[in-house]
Luciferin 4-monooxygenase (Pieris macdunnoughi), 228 residues
Amino acid sequence: MLFYIALVGSKVYPDLFVKFKSLLREGTLLVDAYGQTETLGPVVKGLPGTPVGSCGRAYDTYILKLINPDTGDEITKPNIPGELIVKGPSLSEYYNDPEETAKLFTEDGFYRTGDLLYKDENDYFYFVDRIKTLIKCRNYQILPVELEEVIRNHEDVSDVCVVGIEDREDGQRPVACVVRRKNCVTAQEIKQLVAEKLSKHKALSGGVIFLNEFPMTSTGKVARKTLI
């Protein structure tokens, strides 16, 4: 008997995926799926052989494109994040609200997901983050997930969430909210870790905040807006 488990709702880090898979019985198919309420289900499918970290390839019944969220130009080169837009047979609308519905669709009928993904050379899609979580610091757009992946590698970090704090000069500054395992790592060590791994404009100029736990939404996601 084949058991099938799909992980949905938020980004699944590769190390967490591997750890979870190791706990499952032999023969269980574990996939990282992607879809939205508005698409009435998944638009990409994870199958055996899908790379860890990928949510799979597009279903044949959907047309998927990646566009530059600033210019609207289509992204055709691999490994470049862009907003995923979708056209297919199962897309929902806002009930009795044509104006809000119109904002969700392009002129040629593609649904704007508001999510950043990229596609590799073999047409596998990878979820990056929600566009609205982007931190705009000076003239740069910073992906919180990029900083989070670096900080998560520290052995004393149990969980991390990077958000933007408003700043009069820079627009926003990235702040790392961290849950520690043993309360050993310091704020300076985390700042230094990011400085060593990433470019200068991605530095934690907003600082580091230590929390005992993260506030969660009713759907089990980190309530980013209430962190700071």
In short: The longest strand covers residues 157-167. The chain has two domains: 4-131, 134-226.
